[in-house]
Amino acid sequence: MKRITILVVAAAACTGQSDADVASTPADSTESVVPDFVTFVDSSELPTMPGYPAARSGMLQVVSAGDTDLSRSIAATASVCTTPSMLILSAGGGDDSWGYILLMQLPESDREVVYPLAHVDRGFPVPPASAIGVERVSGDAGSAYQGLQGFAEVTDFSETLSGRFQITVRQIITEEYVQLAGSFSDIEIHQRTAEECLPAAAIN
Between β-strands 177-191 and 72-81, what pairing exists: parallel, antiparallel or unpaired? Predict the structure, then answer.
């Protein structure tokens, strides 16, 4: 997953900036709710955002809407870096070798909040903020998507991680848009070493 980690760390530092307030949605809701945040693409140009998939312990559950099917159910891992203060949720493998990674810039206090997807000119956005990347990392049909707009929401941040997201991603070559809704539940959180966090720290 190192390759996709680099992809999303770069996505967190791409051009543009979003600092809009995002309204939290009820934790027990499964309907599609798009909060009030800055958008780069009008919703009329996009497929309808799907509702949240049912959560499954230890798994990243993703449903998609668009020409490319990015729906998956994959075992996930969660880890945190102290410097920079970041949470990394990653999932990948399987026969088609698609990988998903969701980064969240962590606030100092309450971490069970909404994390708008944000872009900054340099370094990292002010927390709470998020970035996502999806990439196929094997074979000749390589493809990568970066997060464009949306949000993630953490509903449990303790020894385990639970939450969900609704994010628009864009294929980095064809600029195809795909809508992703995901859930993650009871993912054990591990502490990363300083060395493991160096690639992220280096762009700040």
Answer: parallel
Rounded to 5 degrees, what are φ and ψ at 57? -55, 130
Q: Is 198 helix (H, G, I), strand (E, B) or coil?
A: helix
As for how many domains the chain has, the answer is 1
From residue 42, how far is each of 50, 119, 181, 186 by CA, in Å?
16, 17, 18, 34
Domain interval for residue 115: 2-201
pTM over 0.85? The answer is: no
pLDDT band at 26 (very low <50, low <70, confident <90, very high): very low
Continuous segment of H or E residues that includes residue 10:
helix 2-12
Is the separation of the CB atoms in 58 and 76 below 8 Å? yes
Kind and range of the H or E run holding 89: strand 86-93
Contact assessment for residue 72 and residue 63, using Cβ atoms and an 8 Å cutoff: no
Task: Using pLDDT thresholds of 50, 70 and 90, give the confidence band for residue 202.
Answer: low
